[in-house]
Every structure is written in structure tokens, then in C-alpha cells.
């Protein structure tokens, strides 16, 4: 049994990183109950072939619920009252409109962990904005150093491998093992390899591969650089914007913003034969105006267009400032801890001087005076 055996998670079905989080919890032994929308036609069968490629739902249990039914809230609150974690990735206030916001859920279960994942967070000027990964990482500054001279920024070093596939996977393992011990289990070795972890993080890409969206030869699918509506474009001032208008309504918002609804090259979003020419056209259009022009033009729209910011620009962006995404400690600007907690607080400490806590730690761990003297005399400390 995994270290999270005995933990019950209610996951509200969504897309992207939230189902991946649910998958990870299920992989670690948690019982993950996926709340999916009941099909309008109750007799309609699911597409088993497509379903089997949805790797991010592996190991979960599924319950289909008509969330618009008056009884749905009562049913889900009963489930939530007996769960340990509620996991949701909707836009802010969607769960509240369903009657399943934090207040009623935590009233039903005071020990509930109510976990929310969105692109821009629950608060801030962009909280309700649409977007996808390149928009989020562009805003955060994380995308900036993935660039090269005369080349658009792409995912930078350390993000997916060292930190994503290494540090974050290791932390997940440590916390799971700690919880296992707290429930009476044994301590154990957590063997985290960046190669394993980065493979694990690519599960959503494997899903796209199995579904036929990408293949072994990159540069032909929408997810690996071929689609004009999933690109990073350079602006007239040398800055960049990300575009990821995947869903049809977002694609239409992009065309409307660019006054290209009648452009033949862009009439059919999924006509791959038109993608190279359409990409060239959009590259010319975005290069005609500075980054700020495009940010102002698409502000408040659903076109999934956003800036690629440098570290300094990211720290000054109003959304990041309102959410205190960055803090300054000892005159050094740096990312603040994430995620946020409704009761617990986090803080950024100072970097200690080498050996600066020797005496304090010797006292805390009650190292006897004779041994302390030997350690100092031998130069061990």
C-alpha cells in the first residue's frame, strides 16, 4: 500500500494540472474519487478508446453527478464530510456558485484540506483571466531565461528537471512518507530521481501522444510548435507575448482582437495545411506593435494572450504585486513561498552564516559539555 493509504480525496473533474495532482495522490495510495459531470444523455456510452488514454485519471474512482441538480450539493457535502482532501481547479467562484465553496465544505468537515489550483490564483487582477501554461510562466518571469538570441523563450533550464522532476517530486515523497508515519507506519527511504520525476511530469504529454495530438517527429502537432495559436511571438520592442488560444471560444477571441475573423488562413483552426502560413502572418502582425500594445488590447479578453516578463518586470506586475508573489529579504527580491494557506502562515528566512548556530544547536540537542570540548579542541566544529 502506498504511503497515502487511508486518505480520501474528492477531485472535481477538470483539465490540466489538477487531474495530474489527483493522479499523483492516487499513485501514492490515496482513494481519489473523481466527481465527473453526468452526460446529458444518460444512455450515451463513453468513448472507451479515448478514455483509456486519459492517464491522469488512473487509479481513481469515478462518480458522475449532475452538478446543476438541487440534490448534488447535498450529496457532495456528505462525501466531503467524510473525506480528507477536496481538490478543484475551476476558475475562482465556480465552486462557490455550486454551493461548494470553502465555507460550507469546512463547516461540514473542519479537518478538510481544501486544495485549489488555478493559473493566476484566487485573487488579483488576473484571477478571472483565461490562460494556459505559457501565459502563466510568462507572467511569472519563469519563461524569460528560456530564450536565446534571435529565438523565442521556451521552457528554461531547471524548471521541469531539477525543480519540477526533482525537488517537487522529492517533497511530495517526503510529505507522503511523513503522513504515513503519523498514521502508524514505518519510516522509509524516499528515492527520487530527476529522470523518474521528469518522466512522471510528462504524463499529460503522454496522454496527448496516445490521443494523436503529437508524434515522434516534433514540430507537427499543436502542442509542440506547429499551431499558430500556440506560439510565443516577438513584438516590435524586442519583447515577447505568449499565445495559447486552444479552445474554440478563446481562438475566436484571438481572431476578434486581431481583426482577423475573415482571414482565410485562420478560418479553420485545425487545418494543419494552413498553419505555417498562418504562423508567418501572426508573426508579422505581433512584430508590428510593442508588447504593451498587445497587453492592453487583450486585457480582459479570453484570447489567452500574455506577456513574457523578465524577473524585474514580473516583480513589478500589478497582479504579482497584489498577490505578493515576490518578497524582498535583505535587499534581495525573490519568489515568496507557494502555495498559500487559509490558516497557516509561511515566511522567508535569512540565509544563515556558516556555523552561525553551532552553540544554539549544541544546547538544543543536549550535547554534553565534555563532548562539546572535544569537538572544539579537535576542530570538528
Automatic annotation (TrEMBL):
SUPFAM superfamilies hit by this protein: CoA-transferase family III (CaiB/BaiF)
Keyword annotations: Transferase
Name of one Pfam family that matches: CoA_transf_3
MF terms in GO: transferase activity
Name of this protein: CoA transferase
Originating organism: Ferrimonas lipolytica
